[in-house]
What does this fold into?
Amino acid sequence: MKQLYENYTKEDLDVWKILFERQIENLKNKASKDYLQALDEMQSVLNASKLPNFEEINQWFTNKTGWSIVCVPGLIPVDDFFELLAEKKFPSSTWLRSMEKLDYLEEPDMFHDVFGHIPLLSQNEYSDFIHQFGKLGKSMILQEEKLQMLQRLYWFTIEFGLIRETSN
Ligand SMILES: [Fe+2]
It folds into this structure.
């Protein structure tokens, strides 16, 4: 799968801009320092006025932690997910929600994946942690029960951006 950047519409861009600006406002005094710093560092490739271009973002990451975005159609099986993380690849959807569905989606779209998950991968400590987590998951692919526990651990902490910082 590939991101067909030229196929995005004016509505996609409008949706992206609204979501981005709204969330930046919402994050003030709430989000982790590392996350906010990552957003700041990524400004040239991740901002409100332009839909994210995966090629550009991947290029940007080559000089940082070496992660790359891989296009997927939506949620993927857990073993595929851990295998990707073990290779420093993060899955992302390429489609964007419509203007009528700004507030809630059942499946992750590009805003969820790129705005929510990608920035922290540029921070060394977080990058190492997720990489190791992926390798651990990959090593447990044939052990169904352990894999499920690891999946739940991921889902109820990392997925929701749970981070403990010393200052708060
Ligand atoms: Fe997610």
Notes: Residues 10-27 form the longest helix (18 residues). The radius of gyration is 16 Å.
